[in-house]
Amino acid sequence: MAVKERVGLVVSDKMQKTVVVAVENRAPHPKYGKIVVQTRRYKAHDEENQCKVGDRVRIQETRPLSKTKRWQVTEILNAKATT
Fold first, then answer.
1. CA quadruple 67, 37, 8, 14: dihedral sign
2. Residue 11 and residue 53 in contact, taking contact as beta carbons nearer than 8 Å
3. Which residues contact 24 (CB under 8 A, 6 or more apart)?
4. CA dihedral defined by 67, 59, 5, 76, rounded to 10 degrees?
5. How far does Cα 43 stand from its chain's mean position?
6. Comparing C-alpha atoms, which of 58, 67, 65, 75 is closest to residue 23?
7. Could you tell me which residues come within 8 angstroms of residue 75 by beta carbon, excluding any fewer than 6 positions away?
8. pLDDT tens-digit readout, 4-25
């Protein structure tokens, strides 16, 4: 079975070794055809606490790491520029 991967935006990094990643899904409404945006939030394991709010990351499904954490950060695609 293939490993599930998602790309999303880090919306919270307040926990230790965990980030919350919001993944957007844009799909047409089945009846009306308007593009509807659905957002799912996943808790992902970030071992080195590298991710910051605003980073675009790729997450991968893994074994259960806690009660709600089932994903891990595999790479940071775009780090948010700090000024």
1. negative
2. yes
3. 8, 37, 38, 39
4. 180
5. 7
6. 58
7. 57, 58
8. 999 999 999 999 999 999 999 9
In a 13 Å sphere around the CA of 17, the CA atoms on its Cβ side amount to 5
Distances (CA, A) of 32 to 24, 26, 27, 36, 38: 20, 14, 11, 10, 16
| Model pTM score | 0.88
Written as six digits, the tokens of 10 are 């880090």
* Percent of the chain topping pLDDT 90: 90
Residue 67 has which token pair? 């009660």
What are the tokens at 80? 């948010």
Instruction: Specify the pairing of strand 35-45 against strand 71-78.
Output: parallel
Cα–Cα distance, 25 to 8 (Å, whole number) = 10
Residue whose C-alpha is closest to residue 75's, from 51, 53, 57: 57
